[in-house]
């Protein structure tokens, strides 16, 4: 979105002026359209000019912290990057699906929630190694 000629504080000041007088009158005075004032009203609502400065400071702080967090996470991942090793083995995940199924959860939902492929869950496989898991 293009900033245009007005700063955010000026936009809020114009909005507070609109609270006192009509929109067309204020729009003509400041050289903006009525639609622009409506868009500003959606964006800023009932904020005061001082609140906008605080909001801008918070947005700047948030973006700075996000950048720092991204760097920290990339260090935590180690040399593998996003391809980190699964902490829970496939057998344990299948057991979790079997437990959820015994509690009345559908196979589709249990597999989706536990991030298990439905083709490898205990109820859909006929392999002998899975039959002990389904019975447990």
Largest sheet: none
What general form does the structure show?
elongated
Average of per-residue pLDDT values: 76
Count every beta strand, where a strand is a DSSP E run of 2 or more residues.
0
Work out the helix count: 7
* SSE series: HHHHHHH
In whole angstroms, how far apart are the ends? 58 Å
| Radius of gyration computed on alpha carbons | 28 Å
Helix content: 55-70%
Beta-strand percentage? under 5%
Which residue ranges are poorly predicted, with pLDDT under 50 across at least 5 consecutive positions? 124-132
- Count of domains: 2
Structural class: mainly alpha
What does this structure look like?
This protein has 136 residues and is mostly helical. It has two domains: 8-75, no CATH class; 90-135, no CATH class. The protein contains seven helices and no strands. The chain has helices at residues 8-20, 23-30, 34-44, 49-77, 90-102, 107-113, 128-135. Helix 1 (8-20) packs across helix 3, helix 1 runs antiparallel to helix 4 (49-77) and helix 5 (90-102) crosses helix 7 (128-135). Residues 124-132 have low confidence and may be disordered.
């Amino acid at each position: 979105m293009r900033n245009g000629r007005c700063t955010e504080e000026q936009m809020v000041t114009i909005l507070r002026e609109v609270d006192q007088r009509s929109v067309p009158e204020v729009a003509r005075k400041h050289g903006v359209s009525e639609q622009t004032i409506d868009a500003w009203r959606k964006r800023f609502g009932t904020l005061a000019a001082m609140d906008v400065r605080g909001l801008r400071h918070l947005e700047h702080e948030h973006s700075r912290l996000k950048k720092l967090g991204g760097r920290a996470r990339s260090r935590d991942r180690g040399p593998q990057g996003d391809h980190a090793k699964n902490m829970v083995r496939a057998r344990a995940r299948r057991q979790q699906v079997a437990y959820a199924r015994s509690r009345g959860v559908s196979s589709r939902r249990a597999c989706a929630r536990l991030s298990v492929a439905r083709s490898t869950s205990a109820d859909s496989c006929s392999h002998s190694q899975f039959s002990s898991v389904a019975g447990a």
